[in-house]
Specification:
about 350 residues, alpha+beta, nine-stranded mixed sheet, two-stranded antiparallel sheet
Length: about 350
């Protein structure tokens, strides 16, 4: 029978069912997709020019002495630690670290796997060996100042030549500067709640206006010696839609004057702190990493799992709390895996 000049096609119901099953499977493994050619924000050219000036204006080299390797963490004074302990009201302790990755995924390459090898098992017990390349997109970690450098210099003008080699690692600016640990005030910036979404879409720049809007909404603001925790819902989205890489909702370049003014000890994030992709910033590697680790002496803690902390903060309506973490004391290390603790 012809309909509209075409022969009517009868659809096999079994084929339809199979197609629906395949669509369901594809949906279950959906990965976020984004425009191939994102448009540079309107202020990109202006910010690029300002960024070059900020290299000089925002440097803290020499502020805490010519041999200093702690940077803004010097602002975590004994008085600052004592005031942070006063924030503990409920005795609720929450880990800010996701389980370490042991399976390759879009955001976990082969080198980024946390390899746990169980050694010989005998009647009395066993041991195991850990191995991981933790710098990446999945393991909660902190960066040492010798992790990023430019023009042959690390933070505070320490020359790379003579201070960094494959055998000894970093002689200055290593993770050993933080071996005594960090205990201070954390301020949570819940950008997902600010925008009224479950998660902020990857690739979205988090601007100074966003940070200040959240401060107005929450009634808290970061200050000297604090740890800023930026929440975009990375892990919630990953659980719902699967792993991805290369698109990060992170700090936009216009937040650098805000960091300079507030001078926190660390910036933290549930992904990489640099927004990505960065249209209009081609040829510029990790502008936020460079500014913090090389000019300002502000530390970085990344890939934190903030989901439970955010749920607790929302329930208590408290977006400031005590935070504590310490690196592994690895001589020469460029950073360390972490299991930070939020204490409400």
């Amino acid at each position: 029978m012809l309909i509209g000049g075409h022969m009517k096609r009868y659809v096999n119901p079994i084929a339809v069912c199979l197609w629906l099953v395949l669509v369901g499977i594809a949906s279950a493994f959906h990965k976020p997709t984004y425009a191939q050619d994102p448009v540079p924000p309107a202020d990109t050219e202006e910010l690029r020019a300002q960024y070059e000036q900020w290299r000089q204006d925002f440097k803290t080299w020499g502020r805490w002495g010519t041999g200093d390797s702690k940077g803004a963490s010097n602002l975590i004074t004994p008085e600052k630690v004592a005031s942070a302990t006063a924030l503990v009201e409920h005795g609720i302790v929450v880990s800010l670290a996701p389980p370490v990755p042991q399976v390759v995924a879009a955001d976990v390459n082969e080198n980024g796997l946390f390899r746990r090898t169980t050694n010989r098992i005998h009647d009395g017990g066993t041991t195991d060996t850990y191995s991981v390349s933790y710098h990446g997109l999945t393991v909660a970690h902190m960066d040492a100042f010798c992790h990023f450098f430019e023009n042959g210099e690390m933070y505070n003008g320490v020359p790379v030549e003579g201070n960094l080699n494959p055998e000894e690692g970093c002689k200055q600016g290593s993770i050993m500067s933080f071996r005594d640990g960090i205990a201070t005030r954390a301020v949570l910036y819940d950008i997902a709640q600010l925008k009224g979404v479950d998660w902020v879409e990857p690739g979205t720049p988090i601007t100074r206006a966003d940070l200040e809007a959240w401060e107005e909404m929450s009634g808290v603001r970061a200050g000297p010696g604090d740890v800023v925790l930026l929440y975009v819902g990375r892990w919630k989205q990953r659980e719902a839609e699967g792993a991805w890489r290369d698109q990060v909702s992170g700090f936009y370049a216009d937040t650098l004057p805000w960091v300079h003014e507030r001078m926190p000890a660390f910036l933290g994030h549930d992904f990489n702190i640099d927004w990505n992709p960065r249209p209009g910033w081609e040829g510029m590697r990790n502008p936020i990493h460079i500014a913090l680790l090389n000019w300002m002496g502000v530390g970085i803690v990344e890939c934190l799992d903030l989901e439970e902390a955010v749920a607790t903060a929302r329930e208590l309506n408290r977006y400031e709390f005590m935070i504590t973490f310490a690196p592994l004391p690895v001589e020469g290390g460029t950073g360390s895996p972490l299991n930070p603790l939020a204490i409400f």
